[in-house]
Amino acid sequence: MPVWLREHRWRQTLTAVFLSLPLRGARATPANIFCSEQYLKVSIPPFLFEAILYAPIDDTNSTAKIGNGNIFFTLYKKEPAMWDSLTLANADKEKLQYLREHAVLKAHEKAKEETEAKKITKQEHKKYALEATMKLEEEERKRIEDLKEKERQKVAKELELWKNQQKYGDKYKSIQKKGELHQEIEPLKERKSEKMNKTRIPNEGTSKTRLKSTEGCHDSCSIFSQNLKEEQLPAPRAAATIKVNFTPRVFPTALRESRVAEEEEWLHKQAEARRIINSDLSELEDLKEEEKNPDWLKDKGNKMFAMGDYLGAVNAYNLAVRLNNKLPLLYLNRAACHLKLRNLHKAIEDSSKALELLTPPVPDNESARVKAHVRRGTAFCQLELYTEGLQDYEAALKIDPRNKNIEKDAEKIRHLIQGTMQSS
């Protein structure tokens, strides 16, 4: 049975109502508060506060602040007026039930409308992002095409210039060769004329034949020397392909810079993880892609735990552990669910597994180690194993010596142990 909270203080102005509700040591979250136009409910097990308001309020702008052991509500009236009381007086059970169901139904409809609006907004954002991406890609493609066209024009100009240079070079070489031949022939003619002037010619026919023979000899000699010059040029290089073989590597680093033992261990763990996931493929086929993400499942379990759905949270953590059994927070959160469900032995197992994974102890995991010790110690104490529970609480105090709540609980356990020893 719930414990009804009757104590509250309230005051009002013409446009607003200010309500203060004590928590009595309970810990409240926004999920424990429900407010509509004329219905207010605060459910913090085992405490319950419920009120049918005197007149409608603006539930969209109204606020609730949690702090200093109280919940402070600021409720803005829809119509400026002074209320005779906070709640609606002289209302029978049927009317209260109708107002309660109407408020819940209206809240569901409002949540549905907000979900649809968010869905439409998300689709519009996706559409805008897609259009912007396509526009950027089109601009980038156009820029690349322009660059290609410029490069093509540049290469065409360079090729045309090279062809003209080659053409002019060939003409120059042919002119140069003709000049060299002319220079070789001129001195030969001069020498021949000198010889003919010095010597007598006995027979004109014989001299002509000798002259022709000498001219042919010199011509052939000059052609032979030109052929020798051309043969002395080196032959062009032949094309070839060099094959280079590399050692096959899984990791991008070179073999001389790697740690073979650590890499083999990592590959073995990856293969083992893939084997475990592949063995459960028949059970995971119906799941969505995000439901196969351990982090997404952890967040879903946290939300279910906050709403009081401890069995649903345990199922979410179980699936996350099957996908990745190396996350200590999964075991730590599942231990909290088992404590709520009174599965004390499972809570001890999960807390111990979380402490095993939270090694080595570093400042970043201090908070998680404290929670693991406290939850395991709580489970031991509920099993009346006070000595083991006290050891866990003392270990938590060593990590966080300033935590007064843990110190108080440890002192209570010490008194219980002393009382048990005296009675025995």
From TrEMBL:
Subcellular localization(s) per the UniProt record: Cell projection, Neuron projection; Dynein axonemal particle; Nucleus
Q: Any coiled-coil ranges, and where?
A: 130-157
Q: Which CDD domains match?
A: p23_DYX1C1_like (cd06469)
Mark the TPR repeats by their residue spans: 370-403
InterPro entries according to UniProt: CS_dom (IPR007052), CS_DYX1C1 (IPR037894), Dynein_assembly_factor_4 (IPR052004), HSP20-like_chaperone (IPR008978), TPR-like_helical_dom_sf (IPR011990), TPR_rpt (IPR019734)
- Repeat recorded as keyword: yes
Give the GO molecular function terms.
nuclear estrogen receptor binding
> GO cellular component annotations, sorted alphabetically?
dynein axonemal particle; extracellular region; neuron projection; nucleus
Q: Domain CS, which positions?
A: 3-87
- The reply on keyword Coiled coil is yes
* Region spans: Disordered: 192-213
Which named protein is this? Dynein axonemal assembly factor 4
* Species for this entry: Donacobius atricapilla
Q: Which gene encodes it?
A: Dnaaf4
